[in-house]
Design a protein that fits this description.
alpha/beta; 2 domains; 4-stranded parallel beta sheet; single chain; 219 residues; Rossmann fold
């Protein structure tokens, strides 16, 4: 996911840490994930959360606001899962357990990638999905399903925040990202052209430039 973004930010003097989540086996909720991340990373840092990583970023802020010097939220939302969404997560879990990661990727590919995604990007994404153990994927889906509503958290964010969104995101439309940014005092919004729900993966150069500029200005 971060193979191109991490080195590019490093070349600009930004050190990155990209833990594979869940960090510890059996951890199936975002609160536990947040505690693992806070133990893994020393001192203060800038959480950069994409999709479910955005939900985790809200959890990190609630648990340790003094550790976050700025926040980057990408292709994510603040609301809790709807009843319809929870039912969809249950279907996804059933698909994973019956057909493995390949089966669920076939269902998700066209939703998470933009129509302009190259064959190389699609193959890399498929390989990443295939490398994940089914139960780790189930734990991720459960964490998404059971996330807290973070809308009341937005107004408490008192550090610089950047909201990034793929212009072609079919899961979190750009209008929804704009509403998210408007809910955070002083937050900035940056749209990434020709990118879907995984903007850093599809358009790493544009994402890196946006984050590097933000971090340099914010810090």
């Amino acid at each position: 996911m971060w193979d191109e973004v991490g080195p590019s930010l490093g070349a600009r003097g930004v050190r990155t840490v990209a833990p594979t989540l869940p960090v510890s086996p059996g951890r199936r909720d975002l609160g536990s994930w947040a505690e693992d991340v806070l133990r893994t990373i020393d001192g203060s840092f800038v959480p950069v959360g994409v999709s479910v990583g955005g939900y985790l970023t809200f959890e990190l802020w609630r648990r340790a606001p003094d550790r976050s010097t700025a926040l980057v939220l990408c292709d994510t939302r603040a609301e809790a899962e709807s009843d319809e969404g929870r039912a969809g997560r249950e279907r996804t879990i059933a698909t994973i357990r019956s057909g493995g990661s390949e089966a669920v990727w076939r269902e998700l590919e066209d939703r998470v990638l933009s129509p302009t995604a190259s064959r190389e990007v699609r193959e890399r994404a498929r390989a990443i999905a295939a490398s994940r153990e089914p139960e780790a994927l189930v734990a991720t889906v459960e964490a998404i399903r059971d996330r807290l509503d973070s809308t009341s958290t937005l107004g408490t964010i008192s550090v610089p925040a950047l909201v990034v969104n793929g212009e072609d995101d079919a899961i979190v439309p750009l209008a929804e990202a704009a509403a998210l940014a408007n809910g955070i005092p002083g937050a900035r919004l940056r749209a990434i052209p020709q990118a879907g729900h995984l903007a850093p993966f599809e358009r790493p150069e544009a994402f890196t430039a946006a984050v590097a500029a933000f971090v340099e200005d914010a810090l």
